[in-house]
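Input/output pair, single chain:
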Amino acid sequence: TPVRTWRSPRTNTPYPVSMTLKTGALTWRLDPLMDDQELDSRQSTGAVYWEGAVRVSRDGADVGRAYLELTGYANALRIGKE
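Output:
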């Protein structure tokens, strides 16, 4: 469930960078170590996405670190000729 979004100043794309995640009876909170982790690879692969390090917490206590990738929030990726 999204908790907070961050909007890229370069692409104007909003990303849900903070969220809660439920696994069975447990609820986890994911928060980015820094908001601006957007990758703009339009010059090579054509993709714009957010990926980076996040803090994992449960019940307000830090329990670890993780890697989060958010794709599909910027313009659709075009592959091949139109």
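The CA atoms of residues 64 and 77 lie 32 Å apart. The first strand starts at residue 2 and ends at 7.
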